[in-house]
Design a protein that fits this description.
There is one protein chain. The chain has a seven-stranded parallel beta sheet with strand order 5-4-3-2-1-7-6. It is built from ten helices and seven strands. The longest helix is centred in the first third of the chain and has 21 residues, at 27-47. It is globular, with a radius of gyration of 21 Å. The chain is of the alpha/beta class.
């Protein structure tokens, strides 16, 4: 919806500028300005799920709890340790699985489900240029991941998160066609950037607030290493983490 509004405004303003300034020396400058503004909004929409430019996404909980989400797994080294820590603290999360990694580690996927966590679709191969793919590739990536996860868990996949969080009209149509619910985030840990454990811990403690959906990764050593301390210290600050999650508790 926002994309259509932006496009209509861009075209409308372009026409008005042409009508009123076609004999003016300002014409080219104004048209360039409008184009840059349109492209800036478009770029922000592509890169930010929170903006909900192309598709509706869940970015916060409607309660006081904090929901931890983990991308890019399962990882045979770090995911089990993260699961151990979550179990220790009675915290439940959502794991957005890469299909080919789920295929390689089905027992880990079953463990995630058996311990009360939810799983989501994070495409089959996590192709870094997923947002540049055509509709056939996008559809195949989503379908292959959902099919792989369903074969392991015997459950339909409900949630989807695009790689890197980028979106566009092609991805939006594919998601709507498959009735998937898109989950973004309200806070990003940047655990792919902060490899120093103390810096990552400090950031997590600083940004995490009630109702947040926090983006993390379960294939990174630094995330696994700081998680226990983060949960302990955050709880001491009064943060309550989700301990019983279902599709309804997230979407209501």
């Amino acid at each position: 919806m926002k994309h259509r509004v932006n496009l209509i405004l861009f075209l409308g303003l372009s026409v008005l500028i042409w009508l009123f300034f076609h004999n003016s020396e300002w014409l080219i400058s104004l048209l360039i300005l409008i184009c840059l503004l349109y492209l800036s909004i478009l770029g922000f929409g592509v890169m930010s799920l929170r903006f909900q430019y192309f598709m509706k996404s869940i970015t916060r909980l409607n309660n006081h709890e904090v929901l931890l989400t983990f991308d890019d797994g399962p990882n045979f080294i770090h995911t089990p340790r993260i699961l151990d820590t979550l179990k220790k603290h009675n915290v439940k999360g959502v794991f957005f699985l890469v299909g080919n990694r789920a295929f390689e580690h089905p027992d880990l996927v079953r463990r995630i489900i058996s311990e009360g966590h939810l799983v989501g679709n994070h495409t089959f191969s996590h192709f870094p240029f997923f947002a540049l793919c055509n509709s056939a590739i996008v559809g195949n990536e989503i379908d292959s991941a959902s099919s792989t996860i369903k074969k392991i868990t015997e459950n339909e996949v409900v949630f989807f998160r695009p790689p890197i969080g980028y979106s566009n009209p092609i991805i939006s149509r594919a998601v709507r066609k498959r009735n998937l619910k898109v989950m973004g985030w309200s806070k990003r840990s940047f655990d792919t950037v902060f490899r120093n454990q103390q810096l990552l811990l400090n950031r997590l403690l600083k940004i995490t607030k009630s109702g947040d959906i926090v983006l993390m990764h379960d294939n990174l050593a630094q995330t696994q290493q700081v998680l226990d301390t983060f949960l302990c210290q955050a709880k001491n600050k009064g943060i309550i983490f989700a301990s019983n999650i279902t599709e309804d508790t997230i979407t209501k």
